[in-house]
Amino acid sequence: MLGPVILAASRSDRMRRLISAAPVTKQVVDRFIPGETVGDIVPIIEDLTAKGLELTMDVVGEDITTPEQATAARDAYLQLIEQIKPLELGERVEMSVKLSMFGQALENGHELALANVRPVVEAAAAIGTTVTLDAEDHTTLDSMFAIHEELRKDFPQTGCVIQAYLFRTEADARRLAANGSRVRIVKGAYKEPASVAYQDRHEIDKAYVRILKTLMDGEGYPMIGSHDPRLISIAQELARKAGRKLDEYEFQMLYGIRGEEHLRLAAEGHRMRVYTAYGTDWYGYFMRRLAEKPANLRFFLRSMVSKG
């Protein structure tokens, strides 16, 4: 029940100021966001890849109000790609991007976002890696999928994200599975109305399994975005039944959550990719992490009390 309240707070300037000013916040944020600059994050990349993990990198920030900010977001990703190029890690380090950062909500936003994200996809391909387009609220998805389809004409490895709690997603999964896309499936972390999304967590879990089966049985590359031990076990069983080898799908989890499980899955031979965010505009990302899982919220509240 607290999830929708937290998501609403993520859009509140007053709550942003209050939480950002709390002395403990920075310490808790560091659990989920290990740095603010490329210089901070490169050692994290080196450490995690040395442990057998893979990464998808997210430069945080979504409240873009000008074309100049969208250009700056593009340039931040290009800087990241330039900095990781000497590491020669190829597809072990990919990028995740939110098209809202590239100007999707601005005037002529669809064209602007496509124009800004294309150079990032091109630069990623030049160093042997790729980009995944993150899903945002349901009103943005038609644009996201259209941009995804356009990018795949030249860069077929470009991935996208689908959200199990949306009613539309089962149809989206059938379409994407048929044409061989890289698809990350997540439960969903935006406040969506009952007219477009399941509200009950058990219904969301059931939809997740149905969609995951479609992806495993299809021609694409499934990326299982979940920290839920039961869903991870189900994913392994569905992969086995579909005859998939360990390198024909992967698990993805957030930096700072279930780190021991990251290492366990990697040690078993699974591809295990850590979603790693960095940057200064962390508030929206951080609030969604709290909303997604009660344990994250309890961790934050305990920290505030213990520091009080």
Automatic annotation (TrEMBL):
Q: Which cofactor does it need?
A: FAD
Q: Which UniProt keywords apply?
A: FAD, Flavoprotein, Nucleotide-binding, Oxidoreductase, Proline metabolism
Domain of life, per lineage: Bacteria
Pathway, according to UniProt?
Amino-acid degradation; L-proline degradation into L-glutamate; L-glutamate from L-proline: step 1/2
Keyword flag Oxidoreductase: yes
Q: Where is the Proline dehydrogenase domain?
A: 45-299
The UniProt entry, under SUPFAM superfamilies, shows: FAD-linked oxidoreductase
Q: What reaction(s) does this enzyme catalyze?
A: L-proline + a quinone = (S)-1-pyrroline-5-carboxylate + a quinol + H(+)
Q: What are the EC numbers? A: 1.5.5.2
Q: Name one Pfam family in it.
A: Pro_dh
Q: What is this protein called?
A: proline dehydrogenase
Organism of origin is Streptomyces pharetrae CZA14
The taxonomy runs: Bacteria, Bacillati, Actinomycetota, Actinomycetes, Kitasatosporales
